[in-house]
Structures are given as C-alpha cells and as structure tokens.
Amino acid sequence: xxxxxxxxxxxxxxxxxxxxxxxxxxxxxxxxxxxxxxxxxxxxxxxxxxxxxxxxxxxxxxxxxxxxxxxxxxxxxxxxxxxxxxxxxxxxxxxxxxxxxxxxxxxxxxxxxxxxxxxxxxxxxxxxxxxxxxxxxxxxxxxxxxxxxxxxxxxxxxxxxxxxxxxxxxxxxxxxxxxxxxxxxxxxxxxxxxxxxxxxxxxxxxxxxxxxxxxxxxxxxxxxxxxxxxxxxxxxxxxxxxxxxxxxxxxxxxxxxxxxxxxxxxxxxxxxxxxxxxxxxxxxxxx
Amino acid sequence: xxxxxxxxxxxxxxxxxxxxxxxxxxxxxxxxxxxxxxxxxxxxxxxxxxxxxxxxxxxxxxxxxxxxxxxxxxxxxxxxxxxxxxxxxxxxxxxxxxxxxxxxxxxxxxxxxxxxxxxxxxxxxxxxxxxxxxxxxxxxxxxxxxxxxxxxxxxxxxxxxxxxxxxxxxxxxxxxxxxxxxxxxxxxxxxxxxxxxxxxxxxxxxxxxxxxxxxxxxxxxxxxxxxxxxxxxxxxxxxxxxxxxxxxxxxxxxxxxxxxxxxxxxxxxxxxxxxxxxxxxxxxxxxxxxxxxxxxxxxxxxxxxxxxxxxxxxxxxxxxxxxxxxxxxxxxxxxxxxxxxxxxxxxxxxxxxxxxxxxxxxxxxxxxxxxxx
Lengths: 287, 373
Hints:
Strand order of the largest sheet of chain A: 7-8-10-12-11-9
Helix content of chain A: under 10%
Order of helices and strands of chain A: HEEEEEEEEEEEEEEEEEE
Number of strands of chain B: 13
Number of helices of chain A: 1
Oligomer: heterodimer
Number of strands of chain A: 18
Low-confidence stretches of chain B: 14-28, 140-148, 332-343
Strand order of the largest sheet of chain B: 1-4-7-10-13
C-alpha cells in the first residue's frame, strides 16, 4: 500500500505540467484598391505574433497579409466607405487574458500596408507582439499606439505628410524603441510606460518645437536628441539614476547650452521610478 | 435522306464546341459536382466572409471566363478552376480551389474572393475587397475545444489539479508511510547538502543500474523471461523513491515557513508543513501558468520552475537513498569519550541501562568473623 501511494506520487510529480495541442494555421491576403483619398479613421488590432506596418508601395488603400490560427482568432477587416472607417487585424475569439494561448512557435504574423496619400487617424492596439512599425511617408493626422507585452520598434523613415497633433503611446510590460520622431511633424508626444525600457530617438526633420512627456513606472529611459536642438528637461524621479550628458540645472530644469539660440526646442518631462535616465546628444545636427 | 441525317449529325457535333467557345462560357460543359465539393461550397459563406454565396449547382466547375465586352449581374462562382474576367461583373466573384484573374478592361464591382488560390489584378479593377484564403479551414467550424492550445486559464487549472493530486497522495503517505517519511525528513534536516549530491549520483546511476539488472537477468533463461517484470518493478521502485523524497522535501521546506507551535499536535504540524511545502513548489509552477499569455517570458520562467523542482527532487532522492527509504533513522548524537560538556543526558550516558522491572537489591555478603564493637 505504501509503495503504491509512493509510486502514484512519483508519477504525479514527474509528468510534465504543460501540453500543446494541435493548431490549424491559415493564410489570408486582403487588399482594396485605392479609389478615394478621403480622410479615414483606421483601427488596427493584433493580439500576439509578429507585426509589421509600413506605407504601401502599390496603389492600394490597404493590404494585409495574415497568418493565424483559427482556433482562437478570426480575421478582422471592416471597411465602411460612408463612415470613413477601417477596422483591420486579428480579433481574439476569447478576449480574456486567461484564454491567451501559450507559445505559437512564432508562426503568427501580420503584415499591413496603408496608403501613403490618404489622410488618416491611426490607432494601433497590439498585444504580446514583436512589432516593426514604419510610419514614414504616411499622411497621419492622429496617432495612438497601445501595446501590451511587446517588443516594439517605431520608426518614421520619412516625414509625415500632414501635421500631427498629440501622439500617444501606451506601453505595458514592454521594450519600446522609437526612431526619427521629429519626422512625425507633431506638436506633442506622450509615452506612458509600465515596466520596461523606453528608448526615444528625436532625429529626423524638425519643423517646429515639440513637447514630450515620458512616464515609466519601472525601467530605463533613454533619449537621443540632435545636438543642434535646444533641450529643456524636467525630472520627476524616485530611486533613479540620471546621466545628463552636459545639461545644466537651472530653476528646477536641466537646459542644454544652446537652449536660447537653438532654432528648434524639445521640452521633455520624464517621470520614472527605480530606473535609469540617459540623455544622449550625439545625434548629428538636423538636415 | 441519308445526306440530310448526316448534315444534322454534323451540325450537332459542331455546335458543341461552338457553345464551349462562346463569350460567356458559363453554360459550357459541367464536370462532376462531387459531394465533397458541395460540402466545401457550403462552408464558403463562413470561411470567406461572403454572405451571399450562390447555390452549389450554380458554380461553374472547372473554371470560367467572362470575356471582354460582356456584362454579368450577380455573384459569379467557379470551383476547381480559374475565373478570368475581361468583362464586367456587377456583383461578387468567388473561385474555390482556383485563381481569380481580372484582365485589363475587366471590372468587378463587388468583392473578389479566391479560396485555395489568389486574386490577381492584371490591369483590371475590383471596386470591393480582394481576398485570398489558403483554405476553407477545418470542417465543422472552428477547431474543437479539446484540440485548442493550452490557454492561460487552462495551464492554471492544470497546476491546481496537480496540487490536489499531490495533496491526496501526501495524505495517503501520512496515513500509511509516515515513519518512512519522517526518516527521510530527518536525513534532510541533518545532511541536506550530502542528500543533494547523493541524489545527483543516484540520478546519474538510474539508467546504468537498470542496464546492469537487465544484463544480470539475461544470463539465465528464467532471468530473460523476468526482464519485463524487472523493468516495471524497477520503474515503480524508482518512482516510489522519487515521490517519497519529494514529499519529504516539501515537508522539510514547509516547516521552514511555519512558526513552531509547541502546543500543536505532531500530526497536525506534519500535515501543515507538508501542504505548505507543496504549495510553495507548485506555487512556482502556478506563476509560470499565470503568465502563459506572455510567451516571451515563458522560457525563463519555466527554466526557473524546472530548476527549483529538479533540486527538490534530487535532494529528496538522495535523502531517500541515505535513509534506505526512511527505514533507517539516525541515532541522536552522543558526547565524546573525553568527556567535557555538561547536560543531564551526558551525565547519565555512562550508566548501564536499567531494566523496566527493576533490579532486585543484592545483599552484601557479611563475613562471619566480624563482631559489632
């Protein structure tokens, strides 16, 4: 009797706790020819996998290439020409976080191309993704990015064709890198991070001043700023180290030495706890 | 008369290819519409997000061409072949197991859908959406729940289930093998590091010992027949040692978390320690399960959980081996022969053990010559 119990206990301890079941993968290509350049509100939704977004190079309004498992997700592509809305991406069948599946072996992916000449208000809702987003060359009038547990790279490889107002980026437990943010042609940038690293590059073509707010609960903040842009930095930090690369403290702010003479200015407020703030002014002067 | 009949026959034979070559070949020959194809057509509405799918009998089997200059109203559907559009279709176009090609001058005012094929624009225009699906998806709708990948909640339930199973087994061990368990725990308390290294050696020796056993049995004919039974018995024995060892480690770990309570009964203390230890070790796996929705973190978390579990199992196995499955309990340490140190136990250690019944007092022999003063 003793041995039987011990044998059963041993089996219970030794059997692996995880199991993977069969998945069914599908490929879907969706596109629509470009006929109308009226303003469009675009909402992109993608839960988990590799995500790629860039300006289209063919005359399409949108083109999506999707690889997905239909057991827990269904494609989303709703275009309403009258209302000027486009909802596109992949919708989780079971929306709760407890129903998210385990590793999908990296097969899940979404490639999206948007028309560069259509003015749009773009909203991205990304889950646990590895995202490469290049919004260069698009005509964005509004931008909101929301990510969960993601490794996200955002780039503006070419100047935005429209004037952006406030850009909002909400980052969960994630690594967020942005490059050439000056190409956004925006007036304000708000980055709200949870736990993770936020790396912002303000290179590109400066057309005006920019106000930026960066809030990270627990993590590292790195700002890359061209040396000919005047910088004023406000810090609210707790148990956080600060590497200021030559900024001078004055009246509660940290100023660059060219603040008064610079043509363009970046006013930054950084709030973080238990992390590290690094200011890097080695970027070359703006063209 | 004969000539007239031959002319009629020739005319009939000539008309068939002419019909096949007409601008709109939708009324051409219809290859066989199989039952499987009919079922696939029935699934198009759900898979292709195309609500207005024509009936299966209106599908052109083998392909179709809409020639330039022609106009077709309504949904044009083909199966097992391409759909080539040079004219105008006022509606949707669907190709099952085929491509949709819109040539220069061709226009589709609705959506163009290809299932098991591609929608290609060769100079033409599609006013609606172009969709290319790799396949229809599984028959009968979405994949059944039993085949779905493990979700976060599923993983958490699995860990909770294992905790319940181990808890039940632990109660059984306490009822039937508590003495063995105490023996293994005693070894862990006194020789934890040694138990781990012995366990490591034991793990490395599991397979060689089994091979030796098999070889030893293979020497005789009867032994060969006993090999399968010996293997099963060996596996059960090893499983038993591992289980006993892990439960002992759980109890040892649990007792470290609990505050000592002199008033509590020993069985109660043992039970609480055991359950606390099991909760601690399975708690690590519970955290891994709760973060299933973060694939990036899974390798690291699983590695940590596996490492913790492996260390516990190894130390338990070593303690089980050292204590002979808990049958050998170590004696309490005694004082050295050089003396030293106080304590009642050491002071009494030299005494000869006294029988419980006592010893009858012996009368000292008295010499008969001694007289009282």
